Amino acid sequence: MKLFPENIKKIAIVALAGKPDKERIVSGSDFLKTSGYEVVSAKSLNGKNELSYLSSDIETRVSDIENYWNDPRIDLIIAARGGYGSVQILSYIDWKALSKRQIPFIGYSDMTAFHLAMCANKVGIPISGPMIHNFHSIRDDSFSLLSLKNAFMDKQVIEPESGRKRFEALNSGRAIGKIYPVTLSVLVTLIGTPYLPDLRGSILMLEDINEPVYKLDRYFTQLEQSDILSNISGLILGSFTRCGNARERNKLFINISKRHKFPIVMNIPFGHAYPRISVKYESICSMDVTGNKIVLELDNGRERL
Fold it and tell me: What is the pTM of this model?
């Protein structure tokens, strides 16, 4: 399966956050190569940092992303992995220089910070999708790979994967707005910074991993007290992998739904668990949660509202 549009031939891998696993990088790169793409790896993949949880120093990470972004031979950039660290480089990036090319950048988890900063600066094409660390395990995952391909198409319908949980509505209604597919705990770290775009009228798609329910409660409380949640048009809840007791977590979501009137849907295959959907940031999302139906559609070709 060709994963990307025909104009994408050369892919760069960067490590803006955690230190990559070499075997998984090789495996993921080989998968892309056998799929017909030329792949180049940034210095940050083999960089050094006195802090073991970071791929390399800030200068190397900034240099990698800026050099590949401005290289006309590079058609697509994919993050090596998540972890932590992308937020560190945001104030060092020359966003004006990056605005000269509308290049797609794929990742999720900690890449949420970089993706949101891209949106705030109206730079590039941020896409929440598999990272190089993931390709070794999803090479036979047709649902995830097809969704990644569809993220580059003009239209995209979000549907449950066969045999998995059906979507569940917590609040009914209709909504339309720009979609932001993000990791909740990373989103809240950008509140009060210049790297958070205006989320008023948007549709938030949230997921997370390894966060106990009380921390999820804390993050949602921060979204409410900063007037973000009260000003969105709709809420889509993805997977919350290893995020405490499922029953208690669902009670939290139900309590949140009672405080708001916009449509809310849960059990979407989006997050750290696979199979998962890929979503282009700021696509125009239509939510129709009325009667017995739940319809989620994306218009990836429309200009930013």
Answer: 0.96
